[in-house]
Amino acid sequence: MVEWTRSRDTALVRNENDMNEKDAQFLDTLIKSLVDNPNDVKIVRTVDEMGVLLTLDVNPADMGKIIGKEGNTAKAIRTLLRIVGMKNNSRVNLKINEPAGAAPRVTKASKTVDEAMADLNL
Fold this sequence. Notes:
Elements: E1 4-6, E2 12-14, H1 16-20, H2 22-34, E3 42-48, E4 51-57, H3 63-67, H4 72-87, E5 92-96, H5 113-120
Parallel strand pairs: 4-5
Antiparallel strand pairs: 1-2, 3-4
Helix pairs in contact: 2-4
């Protein structure tokens, strides 16, 4: 919820804390709508000279939904966060913590030259 306060000249202005945390609120809403365990979502927001860093922790069972095929969902989330950051004049980055006990990553194995030649000789 955005809070508004009256300044000395009676114009309504947004509460500064709400402006600063819009990126975290956006990420929270987005991630909780994607995962099966929304109560396990934890977002830590830190600000330094490099900009805003949002660190995301989710349930290990939901990790695949956040990363997506070949990391496409994670890339899209990072792109959206950069847009939110640009609108609020800040640089926003996302770090997704890999939970303990998560399944190991499977990478595409390349074929050896001999295996590729054997496939061609079918």
